[in-house]
Amino acid sequence: MALIKSISGIRGTIGGKPGEGLSPLDVVKFTAAYGTWLLRQNSENKKVVIGRDGRISGEMVKNLVASTLVGLGIDVVDLGLSTTPTVEIAVTMEQAAGGIILTASHNPREWNALKLLNSAGEFISGEDGATVLDIAANEDFSFADVNKLGSYTTDDTYLQKHIDAVLAYPLVDVAAIKARNFKIVVDAVNSTGAIFVPALLKALGVDDVTVLFGEVNGKFSHNPEPLPENLTALSNEVDKSKADFGIAVDPDVDRLCFVCEDGGMFGEEYTLVAVADYILKHRKGNTVSNLSSTQALKDVTLKHGGEYHPSAVGEVNVVRKMKEVNAVIGGEGNGGIIVPDFHYGRDALIGIGLFLSHMATLGKNMKAIRNSYPDYFISKNKIELDKGVDVKTIFEKIKGKYKNQPINTEDGLKIEFDKDWVHLRTSNTEPIIRIYSESQNETTADNIAKRIMQDIREFML
């Protein structure tokens, strides 16, 4: 069992004792704390939007969340099976006080989570998150009496509203996409991508679409994180069916990656690079990605005359930095695309619209587009943490060992080795240390990661 409280929300494995997993009591407690925080911000706005991915526990968690909010006197608008970016868009369209997305993103089927949004449809800040956690810890909430209970309504219009917004975005070239007659395979990993991605592709004029794992039952047919080792079925189908490319999303459709026409990986790090290249051709400006993302974005940004800025890991941190530097595009190397004048959230649907526009207007296949960008290799690794491990002490020891190298401690520990780097940090969503290393040589990137992982293991003893 696991229960993790962070700026990414409340995330845990379903079941177990309260406080040790995401039990029904925990769902109620943290929902009540969030609802109480919202009412303290603005007692006049009592509307909250909720939506969920396709997880097995989704219906149960949704019912608990909705009933708790109604019990606080809050009016709930339930989008049902939805996506993270769709709920974010709905919050602003509904002029709601906030929103809750019920998804554990890329985590396996036994996990679920409450992702908490503010009135701008953005993840709440770390400071606000700390307040919510404090309210929960002290159970500092009070429910409404029978005459002041909130209302509960459903709204199934936001699939189309989200698609319409993508089609209306100025840089999404529907005519060019339609003219290319793309043949596409989609890995929907048994979640809401099976509903939203094919519908978007159809609206973009793509008629030849094959969907793998299209039953929305939450029984993920493979590990739901869209990494190469989990996308073998997609890769094989693209190659076998002679498709133009493949699309993979995670269960809540905020991460996006592609498979090339030969079944090879485009690389999730390069999703943002390609979309940024397209955006920057039309709009000069700055870009942002987190400290764990590829240097290729910086290279592309400089090529277009813009400035690149790194941020701490986490969508809320990327968004904050994007606002600070007035970025025209940003995101994370995990396939998260943030288009600020669309909305400040990772959104695979606008990412698909922009990537396909880029590809269609260039007239190139996917492999050729990937080959046009500088080659960097990121080795992504993780070490699971036993309960009680003192990560701070481990990081201090590693910092001491590599004290002669440039070190950034803004978010965990980033160490530079000439043009190579390694970034290690604890995860916001799992009890692990993530170790990402990058080099222009794949073996070098792997070896840097192995060396640091060995250091961590030694310092854990």
Q: What report would you give on this structure?
A:
With 461 residues, the chain is of the alpha/beta class. The chain folds into 4 domains: 3-157, Alpha-D-Glucose-1,6-Bisphosphate, subunit A, domain 3 (Alpha-D-Glucose-1,6-Bisphosphate, Chain A, domain 3, 3-Layer(aba) Sandwich); 177-259, Alpha-D-Glucose-1,6-Bisphosphate, Chain A, domain 3 (3-Layer(aba) Sandwich); 269-371, Alpha-D-Glucose-1,6-Bisphosphate, Chain A, domain 3 (3-Layer(aba) Sandwich), CATH 3.40.120.10; 377-460, TATA-Binding Protein (2-Layer Sandwich). The chain contains 15 helices and 20 strands. A 7-stranded mixed sheet has the order 1-2-6-5-3-4-7, sandwiched between helices. Strands 16-20-19-18-17 form a 5-stranded antiparallel sheet, with helices on one face. Helix 6 (174-180) crosses helix 12, helix 9 packs parallel to helix 10 and helix 14 crosses helix 15. The model has no long low-confidence stretch (mean pLDDT 95).
